[in-house]
Amino acid sequence: MPWLGYDARGTGVKTVPFLSTAILRYRSGMAPSEHWYQFAFAALLVGLVAVLPLQAFAHGGGLDGLGCHQNRKAGGYHCHRGPLAGQHFSAKPEALKKLQLPSRQAAPSAPPSDQLGELTGKPSITDGDTIRMGKTRIRLHGIDAPESKQSCRDGEGKKWACGREATFRLANLIGKNWVTCEPKDLDRYKRVVAVCFVGGKDINALMVRDGWALAYRQYSKDYVSDENTAKEAGLGLWRGEFTPPWEWRRGKRLAGSAADRPKNACPIKGNISRKGAHIYHVPGGQYYTRTRIDTGKGERWFCSEAEAREAGWRRAGR
After folding, report:
1. Is residue 50 part of a domain?
2. Phi-psi region of 96 (alpha: psi -120 to 50; beta: other; left: phi over 0)
3. Are residues 199 and 128 in the same domain?
4. Same-domain pairing of 123 and 244
5. E strands within the chain?
6. Within-domain flag for 63
7. CA 169, 170, 173, 178: dihedral to nearest 10 degrees?
8. Alpha-carbon span 262 to 268, nearest angstrom
9. Could you report how far apart the first and last alpha carbons of the chain are, in Å?
């Protein structure tokens, strides 16, 4: 602008020539009408210089994590940014109460579930029901896989690392492919709960259908039919005995081997029903894992089906 003067180095505004000239003329009583605009503009600048600092520094302190501050002069808690912008409160706890946050929590760490968009990427595998895309943790909706350190038993009563195996199975299922997840909710750990797909296939359903996870009925019944399929076929966890993951997290473990089966580990269970029917169950059978042998009732273990039949037991229909 032609009326602005600059210093010799060109580092910033130094003088306003016409303003100083206008002030000198005013002091000396010289105020030609042709210079009226200088006096008007000078008055405007003087007014701005006087008012702006008051506006800019009327509040004491900067904005906190909520985009608000405590007004030490006028009193009250005022918000200028964020979800509470434009609102006034008597104190910060009142603002936090409106957000329904604990008093020590500064602001929501994640958006509401209805604002979450579709997630796509190449994930890393945390365990049998959890993946991560970048910094976003994703919990597979409606399923529960054994924990990483959890152990199960196979049809012969041998322990195996079912939690670790479930993690490997999920990793193999995804491979190096891109995964798309459709968010449904946020859990209490701030993880995105989602249904995820690889190659158009529902990963959640595949994990349950192959027996590496259970339908998490507490939250959803979407995968109950997939669980029944795996159970009837004796796949994955269903080939032996296991503790449901939600019970394992509460401290429940499989009973010791000495209490559940003889030392020779003959795997066939000779059960006596409530009606007195003698029925034996083989590993992989539908009711094998839930059948318990009570030798005090005359139930017993068999090493072969031939031995069971000779003793008068018949094979279970399923």
Report:
1. yes
2. alpha
3. yes
4. yes
5. 5-6, 13-15, 68-70, 77-79, 88-89, 119-121, 124-127, 130-133, 136-140, 143-144, 152-153, 159-160, 179-186, 192-198, 201-202, 214-215, 268-272, 278-281, 300-302, 314-315
6. no
7. -160
8. 11
9. 93
Tell me, yes or no, whether 160 and 79 share the same domain. Answer: no
To the question of pTM greater than 0.70 for the whole model, the response is no
Q: Model confidence over 34-72: pLDDT tens digits?
A: 555 655 665 666 555 454 444 433 444 577 767 787 877
> Two tokens at 13?
């505004």
Supply the range of the domain harboring residue 94: 68-99
Instruction: Decide if 62 is inside a domain.
Output: no
Q: How confident is the model at residue 214 (pLDDT cuts 50, 70, 90)?
A: very high
| 74 and 16 both lie in a single domain | no
Amino acid at 201: K
Between CA 122 and CA 120 the distance in angstroms is: 7
Q: Tell whether 131 and 244 lie within a shared domain.
A: yes
Number of helices followed by number of strands (H, E) in the chain:
9, 20
Could you give the residue numbers annotated as active site? 139, 147, 191
- Pick the closest to residue 124 from 115, 116, 114, 136 (CA basis): 136
Query: In terms of domains, do 173 and 194 share one?
Result: yes
Tally Cβ neighbours within 10 Å of residue 207: 27
Within a domain: 222: yes
Q: What's at 256, amino acid-wise?
A: G
